[in-house]
Amino acid sequence: ATPVNITGTCEAFGENCSGIEIAIAPSDQSYVYALAYDANGLMSGLYLTRDQNSWILLTSTTVTPFSSLATGKNCGAMIVDPYNPAKIYVGGANLWIGQGYVENSPFQWTATSSNESLNSGDYMASVFSNPSFVHSGINQITPVIIWDEEEHVNHYYRYLIATNGGVFYATTDF
Asked: pTM for the full model?
């Protein structure tokens, strides 16, 4: 089969786009997400296609997973929730969760992690003791498969998060 350029229908993937990350929902492969960033490595938008033809912008300027130090060029991770195709995790300087895609409805975004910007003097005491701390420079988010002996099913609501400052383990759903 000949590859088809599905980015040509979206202006954000044009000449101002410096990079694109792709994530596909494992529970519904019609959900294809594309994270685009500009020449500065800052997010220009997160898009969704369900038909591999038209793209829907899911972010506004208030969703800022990247910073001038933790850009899409030197870090960045995106993963779709293993069970919910309308829920996505995006990491860079911080971890953001977007969810709630329904046709013609806004996507809801929440910043769910804190990083070293919380430092008010004593780095170890003020930051690492914070339960929502995840080091900036998020490079990968991986679900951990946990086998449930009673139900005889796999559960994924644990995640390993690889960052520029180490690997973090999230023990609960974000």
From this structure: 0.79
